[in-house]
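How a chain folds remains the central question behind the approach discussed here. No coordinates are needed to read the tokens, only the vocabulary itself. For completeness, the protein is quoted in full, as a sequence line and a line of structure tokens:
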Amino acid sequence: MIPLRDINPTRTVPLVNVAIIVVNVAAFLYEVSLGQHLELLFSEYAVIPRHVVASFSNYQVGGLASLFTSMFLHGGWLHLGGNMLYLWIFGDNVEEKMGHGRYLIFYLLCGLTATGVHIVVDPASTMPTVGASGAISGVLAAYLFMFPKAKVVTLIPIFVFLQVVELPALVVLGMWFILQFFNGLISLGFETAGMGGVAWWAHIGGFAAGAILLLPFKKKPG
């Protein structure tokens, strides 16, 4: 299932959500401009679990910057496009409910938690991990719990046909999380590269963080 848009209008401009998208796109365009030097960028600013664990062990705080920078890097056009599509569709409503400042902090905390879970699950991995999907997973959790009945216009491939239907967010995002969870279970014990390069546990961790942080970050009525 591929969400195309939601039928859940907002009354405010999602300034933070748009800014996050712009920063991600700008960062990716910079990646593209590097050509063969991109590997050097990833070695410095992507999360490499073994390196992060070593930084913690040696109390090298400066080596932990990748926990933030990795959230704004992507591994390809599809990676970027898929993440930004989800953020564009679901982020504006969450930002409106939280307020601009709370939403930004919420987004970053979900991303950090997602990365932390990924590192805990595979602390010896030397594979660079990048992407906003952990933080976005937290946004999806917040949307799911706040707007479970909101309609989402969804593209569903049925054999060789494409069907566009309206489904409740509970179905679209619920199925999304179930897919992440089962893929996460299957990936246990395997190197990330063996599972197509997807950090499933980062998605699960980000989603859990979003569900937990929703209550304190949601604006009080009135």
Summary: The chain has a mean pLDDT of 90. Residues 2-215 form a domain with the Rhomboid-like fold fold (CATH 1.20.1540.10). The CA atoms of residues 54 and 60 lie 8 Å apart.
